[in-house]
Protein 1
Amino acid sequence: MTPRESMMAALNREPPRGHVPHFELAFFLTMEAFGRIHVRHRAYHQWDQMSEHERELHRRDVADLWVATVRRFDLAGLLFYGPQGFTDDDVRRSLEHIRTLSGLERFVAMHGDATFSLPSGETMMEFVSRLAEDPAGLKDEAQRRVDAALERGRAIQGWGTLDGFALCADYCFNDNPFLSPAMFDEFITPYLVQLVAGYRELGFYVIKHTDGNIMPILDALVSANPHALHSIDPQGGVDLAEVKARVGDRVCLIGNVNCALLQTGTDAQVVEDVRRALRQGMPGGGYIFGTSNCIYTGMPLARYELMLKTWREEGVYR
């Protein structure tokens, strides 16, 4: 199977064979790996002043860097990130270049969440006030956001170049979700259910990402029927073996290699944690290998390469 086919098989919880597919939400070490600025660190403030030829060169460069990343690090798939200034039409053209360069060998995803995320410190008090004082208005906004996301999804469906969406609204701290389970079921779950169902009807795969301790809302997340949950965060006290035992027959699981160990642990600790994740995630399939967050700026590239070395040697269905 191609890496894309392997990832789709895992998302569909089909019988596994070959390597466990490898997926990351993001790979930000492009400067260290390729000597090239990551696309999210670029800001094309004079985009409208560029000639069409220059803009097209930038679109092609973004696509080329995406393909170089997935091939060097054996990624079955990766989210597409457009630089600041990219319109959806610019994204569409870059995705076309990705398919020209790589065919259908890799799984291509984009961000597509519309549900309320854990608010920032700057907006938290406003959000909490609205929960208490204007719950109906907040729900109306939630519905409008979902409707707009699905309208955009219908347009993107016509591109024919995208496999799925990653829903990247974070809901949890390391200790607990921001909203109680009852409030989560009131303000998040109904809209997440609609969003996932709408994307599925359009033929897209859906990966739901949230860091932190998801255990109090695990059943609600699974009830929304995404193809996969990411990132099964050990820093939030989430145990991959427990989650797999509880819901592994209903949803694919992605991630769980501890990013903190990749950052500050020893080589031996990294290797053991990779082995643990493979040991807990692989049985029966429905598992995609990856970190508990992403390959973020500042993580030692050598540690990521050590993680992949262990995966290449041991993450194989015999």
Protein 2
Amino acid sequence: MKTASTQLAAHVAGETATLATCWKVMRRDGVVLGFTDHDQDLTVDSLLYQASTGYTRSAIHTISDLSVDNLDIESALNSDTLSADDLRAGLWDGAEIEIFFVNWQNLTQGKIILKRGTIGHVELQDAVFKAELRGMTQQLQQQIAELFTPDCRADLGDSRCKVNLVALTVIGTVTAATDRYGFTDSARAEANNYWNGGLVTWASGANQGRKMEIGSFSGGVFALYLPMPGVIAVGDAYSLQPGCDKSFTTCKNRYNNGNNFRGEPYIPGTDTVYNYPDSKS
């Protein structure tokens, strides 16, 4: 049920309504932004809602069977607070969204909350982005308990894995780069595939402070899983952490960490479950 102040409810019930829609974005890095489809900026609860980056939305889809309700939001990339680089870097992934109505002629009447949720799939098309807003019931679709798995459920270097990543981290400098998907460091002498699945963190250049997983490594050439938001240039400094395929063999042989393996490598699989007696065996 939607709630509103007495004054705002009376305004909505009147013959003429002066309503504007606002959406509040709370990114996971702590940045809070506001946008509105009104033709002027609005300040609601001390937050500025920018009209320069207006947006359009689809109809809000809500049903009562606990399925995930959703809508699409589309906006132009014409503001410093809504850049393509930030979207590519994942700064908007999982951001919390609140959409509401206000009476732009009298903001003291309060607001009517239309939808709360998180940003899901994001598409970039030229100077426009489209984001999927997933309702709060999306949380009911998430796995919250651990399952038995043959692979390790810990992440390399976390509190359960306990591998000391500081001792395994190296630094380097880009000696050649052709695009945002990869680079070369001719000083790297590790064996082919050594850095597969690892993590590169940029210490300088257009991608400073950003990270990306490494898809493959061979002869000093790195291929990234996804393109970096900024251009990779010769001289960019970086640090590297190794990766882990989460298998017991890698945990034991490469990291000598079998005692901390968080998986069940010898648990029977589906083939065992579907076995049946065979008179020939």
Protein 3
Amino acid sequence: MNKPFQRIGSKSNSQAGSDFEISAQRFFASQGLELQRNIKVPVGVNAITKDHAFDLGCEQRKVIVECKSHKWTKPGDNVPSAKLTVWNEAMYYFLVTPPGYRKIMFVLRDYSEKRNETLADYYLRTYKHLIPNDVEFWEYDETRQTAVKLSL
């Protein structure tokens, strides 16, 4: 079956996302931060809230993490604009999260030779106006299994 939007080398895009969440969980554990998957936190505007499941989190330490393993489109390293709308949605959920949470956007490092920047660099440059002040951006290098906190 032809699956033109399937991540190369993965059984499915959802499996690629799940595998990336596990990589993020392992990385943060190596930094002394134990996180559980699928943490539900009440979010909302005004007095109306509804539980939203974040990819990772810790209730006791009030940490929530959204994980995104998106890449530049192939061929041509074009901007995956539809996928970046999901990043924007994550920014909104971070914005309407109750105060006091540490908010982390954990993304896959995908470098474009053509553009001379990573997808995260592109997002920060292009969508900075949508990123709440208290959100941390971390970029994960899957080859080295390391991550760096990016400057906003």
Protein 4
Amino acid sequence: MKKASLLLLIFISLTAFTCENEGLDPDIEIQTTNPVDPNNPGDPNNPNNPTTGTFQVDINGETYVADMAGAAYINDVVNITAFRNNNEETITITFKANQTGIYELGVANPGEFFVNGAGYVPEAGANGFVSALEGNMIPQGEINLLEIDEVNQTLSGTFSFTAYREETAGNVEVLEFTNGNFANITYSGDFGDIDNPSNSFFAKVDGVEFVEDAVNGVEVLGAFNTIGITAIKNSFETIGLTVPNDITPGEYTFGDPGDGTPVGQYNVSQTETFIAEGTLIITVHNTESNRIEGTFSFTARPFLGDPNPTYDITEGTFGVSY
């Protein structure tokens, strides 16, 4: 299995190392390579376009301009994802932040469970490139979050990073992402307190209760309209479910990321991601009140590589508002 998913990328690369936290400098402007047509309100590079943000970056010197980009904010973690080529070519940047500032990407910190990071999937079915290197102490890039517009719920900033992919032992491909910028990218979630006391979650991992620190639900609109349900323990260990946002009550089988079916996952650490094989039952989904409830159980197998080890996730129940 060599597919990659936005949900998985969200949790593969998570914690923050803040070099500097600054307010937005009003003199800084987001620069774009493509010219803006002021007479075309649909031009994605037009800063006056109220419905479309922009995202672009040079990959080894060739400019990537996203067809669509979106963002989500959950449990103090920002995820920005850009899509191109029928949504098969993706760039995802994930970092922990609740204010503007500069955040390092791809550096492991002693005592922390995870790192900020970025990922790139060049095409459907391909292994992805990632900025995070296990045990690494040297930053592989940075993201500068220049503006958080909480009124219009948009983000703007700049970024650069180096990403790696090891197809065979000792054969590492390297890509340089430079001159990256994003402007007016719409985000879902709330940079205030998004924890909801009405949320509930229970599951066992190999017979032992998973005692989460927080459980959240978030709806992500864009190329894939989904609802993400995430229980987080010790900052990184997570059990996550992602379902189509129009899912109706019924029984479902967990599938592969990107195929339109519910996806389940279990993350043990920054480098250990497991995908679900099992069953999800939706008992309640009220799209007017944004409430979803259900039960689940699955065997979690490694997302890539060796099929072992596995974990049994049982007695799962949840009820979350999003």
